[in-house]
Amino acid sequence: MTTPPAAAAPALHHHHHVSLSHMVKDSIAAGLLAALLALPLLGFHLLDSAQGLHLDTRFPLVLWAGLIVFGGRLGLSLAGAAIARRMSHQPATAAENVSAAPAKPKPIRKIAGWIMVAVALVLPFLPFSDRNLVDKATLLLIYVMLGWGLNIVVGLAGLLDLGYVAFYAVGAYSYALLSQYFGLNFWVCLPLAGLLSASFGMALGFPVLRLRGDYLAIVTLGFGEIIRVILLNWQDFTGGPNGIASIKRPSFFGLPFTAVSMDGQPSFAQFFGLDFSPDHRIIFLYYLILVLALATNLFTLRIRKLPIGRAWEALREDETACRSLGINPTKTKLSAFAIGAMFAGFAGSFFATRQGFISPESFTFIESAIILAIVVLGGMGSQIGIVLAAILLVGLPEWFRDLQLYRMLAFGGAMVLIMLWRPRGLLSSREPTIRLGDAPEAAE
Amino acid sequence: MDYFLQQLINGLTLGAIYGLIAIGYTMVYGIIGMINFAHGEIYMIGAFVSMIAFLLLGVLGITYIPLALSIVLIVAMVFTAAYGWAIERIAYRPLRGSFKLAPLISAIGVSIVLQNYVQIAQGARVKPLQPIIRGGFDLSLGNGGQHASLSYLQIIIFLLTIALMAGFTWIITRTSLGRAQRATEQDMTMASLLGVNVDRIISTTFVIGAALAAVAGLMVTLYYGVIDFYIGFIAGMKAFTAAVLGGIGSLPGAMLGGLLIGLIEAFWSGYFSIEYKDVAAFSILVLVLIFRPTGLLGRPEIEKV
């Protein structure tokens, strides 16, 4: 692909000087288009009744759609014009800000990162924390961990994986099945689940990683579906659509979270002389995923400084150059792919033990899309950006669960809008971990 | 033998539908190098518009089938093309020239929006439509007690697909629009320097792709008689598989890939298991990619440094 002419950006600036009548015309066109698009799908409603399907009309909705788009478009262009007028008084500073921005925020991000870790550490004991909050924070951390895991594949190695949830599913089902058939406990299964996911990643990656990136995307997408179809249909082994219920809950290194002692083992509360409370398990699960997530983060931060991590980043930037320098692209990509899969496997077995119940329903494509969106919105390679994106994409909608239907609509809309607003993600950090000499940053 | 014949006919029907969707993927990929993830949803919208148009014609009393079919065809193509145009304009054009994954993420967002929009607007339940075109030819050879038939609907699907493909090939190879389209595909910068309005060509590409997907949506509405807001995902994925199988960027390849995927799916469900038919299509895809990474009709890509 050659870079298309960069005509879009300068063209935008000219728009600021357009007249009001042009804006109104433009908004009317947008409103009419919205009404046209709304006409078939909002204007008519398919109703199924005993006599079969029949039609119902809702034309006011079409009118509303047109009016809202007209108003929104006009408002936006007026606001844009106002901003442009103000900016035109001080064009120089605006340009400076843009060029100075990428170099600055490093230390601030580091401090912000430590503050986040500190808040995460004390979260369950803050005065306003309750069961619900800790539970939601646990869910959020699962996505943060998955985001960090996928970041190794997408952000560092630059491989587009659209089926990451498949490895998450492999991890979850390996724990559930291993504990069901062999009675193994969580701590034994955790590494096994990671290992299994990694080997799935190897098996899938080996044939396709030597191909162009887009093919990898579609093969991983297909693989995600295959895993789900197999989980759905292999009834005897995986329970099919009913999933696997009553998965063993985790213990505190052998001490179960129960009210009374079981099988001669004292319970967690008894061992530490505490009053039994169901909150103990919730809090323990929270810290467990926090540790797992931080381990993923630490791993990523360290491996970026090792030869293999640098090879990933180099490969992302220029595969041909890497090949001429003696890096084996297939092996290097395979390692990133397998390690990313391994972390998904860890997260998966945690998910299984937290839920106590898993079914193929939890591992649909939409999950992969959410995780990928977290990584890309976070800025492809920025660890803190991923946390922010996870809070934005998973945390916020989680609080609005009552608006179930509109939640996903807003989620998709946010994905588009954030891409339009900041195509490089909220916090982009694509600059290499190391650099030779003082080579000036190439404009991206 | 009859059973085999029946699977062959069913597979080709399915393949024609996949092929029409696959053209949209392959054209967009060829011209801007982007996987238009929302294309499956475009096809779903085409199916919904067709169903609504059919019911509306029923209310208006137009029941002469050839007339009704033509009207629905045009209505579905126009509205769906408008969706395709608007999506490109809103969600993809501002991201042109941005880094590679940005349009893809935007496309995934669009896909989620459209799916939920239709779910909210039309409800989540499956929409059944009475069969509109009935009857067909009996092709049974009479041995084995099996039964093979070629329905009128299947004939219409074949004829429509062939006509569209012919018209489409004519546009691409013979008209000035097609020439500009091919030029843009080869080198966007050069084409724009030589006076091709690249933005308009890309818009047209999306419009054509969406119109063809709308026809596929219409066919599915007639063929299966049931649609819901989720049909775009799987069909879109298979159509993309078809595009890759045929060699992405190649138009005859997309049609060939579509037919192959349709046949594989029909024979697999006919002889092995229905549950695993999606697995079969993807396994074939992986095998093709291992042994012939450029697809069946794709040209090998020459990497310039």
Task: Please describe what this structure looks like.
The complex is a heterodimer of chains A (444) and B (305). Chain A is 68% helix and 3% strand. The N terminus and C terminus of chain A are likely disordered. Chain A is built from 18 helices and two strands. In chain A, helix 6 packs parallel to helix 12, helix 6 crosses helix 16 and helix 6 crosses helix 17. Chain B has one domain. Chain B has eleven helices and four strands; from the N terminus they run H-H-H-H-E-E-E-H-H-H-H-E-H-H-H. In chain B, the strands form two sheets. In chain B, strands 1-4 form a two-stranded antiparallel sheet. Chain B has a two-stranded antiparallel sheet with strand order 2-3. The model of chain B has no long low-confidence stretch (mean pLDDT 87). The chains are: A mainly alpha (444), B mainly alpha (305).
Write the layout of secondary structure elements.
The complex is a heterodimer of chains A (444) and B (305).
Chain A (H helix, E strand, L loop, with lengths): L7 H8 L4 H22 L2 E6 L2 E6 L1 H31 L1 H10 L5 H17 L8 H26 L7 H19 L3 H23 L4 H21 L1 H4 L29 H4 L7 H25 L3 H11 L1 H6 L4 H27 L9 H14 L4 H17 L4 H18 L23
Antiparallel strand pairs in A: 1-2
Helix pairs in contact in A: 2-3, 6-12, 6-15, 6-16, 6-17, 7-8, 7-9, 7-15, 8-15, 12-15, 13-15, 16-17
Chain B lengths: L1 H31 L6 H22 L4 H28 L8 H22 L4 E2 L7 E3 L10 E3 H23 L1 H11 L1 H6 L4 H27 L1 E2 L3 H16 L4 H21 L5 H15 L14
Antiparallel strand pairs in B: 1-4, 2-3
